[in-house]
Amino acid sequence: MANLLRRARGSAPQGRIAGACAVGAVAAAVGVAGFLPVALGGCAGALIDSLAGAGVQALRWCPHCERACEIDPHVCGTPTVLRRGFAWLGNDAVNALATLTGALVAGILWTALPMMR
Question: Going by fewer Cβ within 10 Å, which terminus of the chain is more open, N or C?
Fold first, then answer.
């Protein structure tokens, strides 16, 4: 286990938007393993957050600062350019989608699989 943690360290560059690593996944699974529906719901929510954040969430570019960002206008006041994703799908919407997905998965498992409680 210690070797896995050593290898996973530094797998996402510092400051990178939407970075995920094995250490967080292992820690989340170990922390709530006794409460399996919640653990699986959390994993489902984290997966949706990562996929939607990397695939359809709006990623913008500030031409003045030459930086990627998530808001329009940028903090410097310059209007940003949409680089990928949907303009209306920001970080808050992705977080809400991930939270609802996790809660839904946990709720379905909790009611459908009583032996998991």
Answer: N
